[in-house]
Amino acid sequence: QKEVEQNSGPLSVPEGAIASLNCTYSDRVSQSFFWYRQYSGKSPELIMSIYSNGDKEDGRFTAQLNKASQYVSLLIRDSQPSDSATYLCAASGSARQLTFGSGTQLTVLP
Amino acid sequence: GAVVSQHPSWVICKSGTSVKIECRSLDFQATTMFWYRQFPKQSLMLMATSNEGSKATYEQGVEKDKFLINHASLTLSTLTVTSAHPEDSSFYICSARDRSLAGGPEEQYFGPGTRLTVT
To answer: Residue A42 and residue A92: Cα distance in Å, rounded?
Structure first.
């Protein structure tokens, strides 16, 4: 069974700190990985995509991918209260469908 | 950026009635649209994959006769929940993939979701 697993949290960090979110996947065929942010009652919003090993930075966000370890992470620098949300990790497999993790709830404390 | 709309944003219906939810890609053509369901405090669960001009592919455990999907054009897919029951109450979200990116990145753009409550 293809799975994407995340530490469910909740994760709390003080404002200005680095928030680290982790994700592992079981399907070695997966080639594309995504981080979505979902505010309560809203639909997911794509914040990062990563396709090759290494780091990808976009503003305060850095995604890291290690295909050998089947591991994806998201770092949020200078965390803000507005970053408080549930973060969903997703992997796209051979069928080009997305498999989502259960999400990590992040709270940034002012 | 790619925009996906859904209508209605919320709906309340009586048990036994049917409800239709529309998903539209506003500024791009979508060869493939996806329908998800999300229960409170849970992650998104893929219900079906909808390809323009062909029958939808349903995930295991999703009743295709209960959740009717029609993808009549490259910008519109509809989900009809037939004979709805209280246990169908959920947050239904569609997503679409840009046709121009066929073979490229797998990014999906999500609609704002439709909250269905069946009384």
So the answer is: 22
